[in-house]
Design goal:
The structure holds two protein chains of two kinds.
Chain A: H1 2-18, E1 32-38, H2 43-57, E2 61-65, H3 70-77, E3 84-87, H4 93-102, E4 106-115, E5 117-120, E6 128-130, H5 131-138, H6 149-152, E7 162-166, H7 171-181, E8 192-194, H8 197-205, E9 210-214, H9 216-221, E10 227-228, E11 230-232, H10 243-247, E12 255-263, H11 270-281, H12 283-289, H13 297-308, H14 326-331
Helix pairs in contact in A: 2-12, 11-13
Chain B: H1 3-53, H2 56-61, H3 77-108, H4 111-124, H5 129-147, H6 157-181, H7 185-193, H8 198-209, H9 211-227, H10 230-235, H11 253-262, H12 270-300
Classes of the chains: A alpha/beta, B mainly alpha.
Chain lengths: 341, 304
């Protein structure tokens, strides 16, 4: 019988430890979990926000931050499974329709500027590349054709070209393909696709002929393992990705705003509202800490107004906007249905 | 109540208990069959949705697999290539090593050595495969790059295959050793009496006599290698690649299924059905191996 009791106790303990919901704090009250998912580009900012907020709340609220990619995250967000959605591009028309159908209203909050950085192995002699050369490499027609650096530009080394890039559920993929190839999601498919930018870092760091692309934060964290190429666009001199070149607008067309979307209904839950408020109040510090570029202070003020007035909708009308000016974007009216194409 | 009636009652109770136990045992056995049939049924019916959109000829002849992209293409060949190549690399390592270990353990090792080595060897199969995956990525690949293949990419089938080989060595060694030990000693004694050495006896007598069991062990190891997921997903790469060069990176059938299943593909889409089609192809492959094993065992079975 004693054995039976021990077994029961162990089982109860195991079940208690393994079942996440609802967790209890020290006093035994249940802990609310704010669920964040989406872009791995935005992940470092939300992760930092989540950690700092949890600390400030003394464990009364839990924040989980996942990285399914912008597309993967929106699917969960529009099913009402998450409260906050990280996005490295604006919500698309199909996602707006999915959210509308499920009755999920979203508040769009631009949170930072990012520069999609094109990176190579540190030993690669190439220092800069044009957007036309990038298109030559990444266009769908390049599939199986372009697999040596020399085929891109005769001045480049005779080196096997191996490609690492964002997966199809990634907002970085959508933005990069639209900015470089002219059409969102149009890309060659014979490369290593992943929604986790650390896999790309790992791949490029271990492959002399590699090229990859991801958000600025991952470049800043890995400067000893990968090197960014300066990008030249429209005949202008090449510009390397950095906070300064994003801020002065010279790193085009690969700099872009990134977003956080909040479910309007979830804001009725106090912990979600507190988390979003904490996020926006400390945005500049959080964004700098994650090695991205903060927006002008007025942008965060507008974001807080949107939250306070529950102004749902998007300023982008369901499509991407290459090289958008953030001040102008913030003045645009918000819409919840995409205009007919 | 008479004594007879009491005995009748007790016996009936016994018989009832017996029946209940028999029924429970039968249900347990039937569950295994039921689950197998249910899995096959799911794979087939969901694959049919896939083949509504994609003609079977495209599935079998196209050489590009890119269901998640714009203008998707659905040729299973690159994934099968990845699976076969990693499996072959694994077998190239595991078959010689495994068989040598089996011969040593069954014919040469002292009982004490065997009692020590065999459990340790079997422990290799108990290492979680996710750990093997990171071992391949962070130890084997850098080692190969530092020694013989400086141009090896970060994700490649060679490292993944070699580590799969390590994973299946215990399957092959342990089962082959069991088969060889089951060979009656009279056969060995006959060989010794003819002046055969221990090695000659092991290679020419015990090994051939156990060949049906050894073939079974090899096929089991092979099925394990074909179905292995974590190692190839971590160390082999995610890029379907139609190649026969194991130093390149490539996705296997299992790695593709894992990649899609972890991601967020909506049910009912072609991307979703594609994992069932890939899984069905994989099931057919392992089924073929198992039938081959069954046939080999019948064909070469030696009765003593």
């Amino acid at each position: 019988m004693a054995l039976g009791r021990i077994a029961t106790a162990v089982l109860a303990l195991a079940v208690g430890a393994c079942s996440g919901e609802p967790a209890k704090d020290k006093a035994g009250a249940s802990v609310f979990t704010v669920a964040v998912d989406g872009s791995s580009t935005v992940f470092p900012i939300s992760e930092a926000a989540g950690e700092a907020f949890q600390k400030e709340q003394g464990g009364r609220v839990r924040v989980t931050v996942a990285e399914s990619g912008t597309g993967g995250g929106f699917k969960k967000f529009c099913r009402g499974e998450t409260h906050v959605q990280d996005a490295s591009r604006p919500i698309l028309a199909a996602e707006m329709a999915a959210c509308a159908e499920a009755g999920v209203r979203y508040i769009e909050l631009p949170i930072a500027f990012d520069a999609i950085s094109v990176v190579v192995h540190p030993s690669n002699p190439v220092q800069s590349i044009t957007t036309a050369e990038l298109k030559k490499i990444w266009a769908p027609e390049a599939q199986g054709q372009i697999d040596n650096w020399r085929e891109v530009n005769r001045a480049f080394p005779d080196l096997r070209l191996s490609l690492y890039g964002a997966g199809t559920a990634s907002g970085t993929f959508d933005y990069f393909t639209e900015a470089v190839n002219g059409k969102a999601k149009a890309s060659r498919t014979d490369y290593q696709p992943t929604e986790d930018d650390n896999v790309t870092v790992q791949g490029v760091a271990g492959d002399a002929g590699a090229m990859g692309y991801f958000g600025l934060a991952y470049l800043e964290q890995n400067t000893s393992r990968v090197r960014a190429l300066a990008v030249s666009h429209g005949g202008k001199p090449p510009v390397a990705p950095s906070a300064a070149t994003v801020e002065d607008g010279s790193y085009t067309p690969l700099s872009r705003p990134v977003f956080v979307y909040v479910s309007a209904d979830a804001l009725d839950k106090a912990p979600v509202a507190q988390f979003v408020d904490y996020y926006l109040t400390n945005a500049e510090t959080l964004v700098r800490g994650a090695r991205y570029v903060p927006l002008p202070a007025s942008a965060y003020a507008t974001a807080r107004e949107r939250v306070a007035s529950r102004s749902a909708g998007t300023a982008f009308g369901g499509k991407n906007d290459i090289g958008a000016d953030i001040a102008e974007v913030l003045r645009r009216p918000l819409v919840t249905t995409a205009p007919a194409p | 109540m008479t004594m007879d009636a009491t005995r009748d009652f007790t016996q009936r109770r016994l018989r009832l208990g017996e029946r209940a136990i028999e029924a429970a045992l039968f249900l347990a056995a039937a569950a295994a069959i039921f689950i197998t049939v249910a899995i096959a049924w799911t794979l087939i019916t969901e694959s049919l949705h896939f083949f509504d959109t994609v003609p079977l000829s495209k599935f079998l002849t196209d050489t590009v697999w890119s269901p998640l992209f714009e203008n998707p293409r659905y040729g299973i060949a690159p994934l099968l290539c990845g699976t076969l190549l990693t499996t072959l690399v694994g077998l190239a390592l595991a078959v010689p090593v495994g068989l040598m270990v089996a011969i040593y353990l069954s014919e040469f090792a002292s009982p004490r050595a065997r009692e020590t080595i065999k459990p340790v060897l079997e422990l290799l199969a108990a290492v979680p495969t996710v750990i093997y995956g990171y071992f391949a990525l962070t130890v084997v690949t850098p080692f190969l790059r530092a020694t013989i293949l400086p141009d090896l990419p970060t994700f490649n089938m060679l490292s993944a295959g070699l580590v799969i080989g390590v994973l299946i060595i215990p399957y092959i060694a342990s089962l082959s050793e069991d088969a060889m030990r089951a060979v009656p000693n009279a056969l060995r004694e006959g060989s010794f009496a003819m002046g055969g050495t221990r090695l000659e006896t092991a290679v020419n007598v015990a090994f051939p006599a156990a060949i049906s069991g050894i073939a079974g062990a090899l096929i089991l190891g092979m099925s394990r290698a074909v179905g292995e997921t974590m190692i190839v997903a971590i160390a082999g790469g995610q890029q379907p690649n139609f190649t026969i060069d194991p130093t390149e990176s490539a996705a296997t059938v299992t790695a593709y299924i894992a990649q899609v299943a972890i991601g967020d593909v909506a049910a009912g889409t072609i991307e979703y059905y594609s994992i069932f089609a890939a899984g069905f192809a994989l099931l057919l492959m392992t089924l073929a191996f198992n039938l081959l094993a069954f046939w080999l065992q019948r064909r070469f079975r030696e009765e003593y």
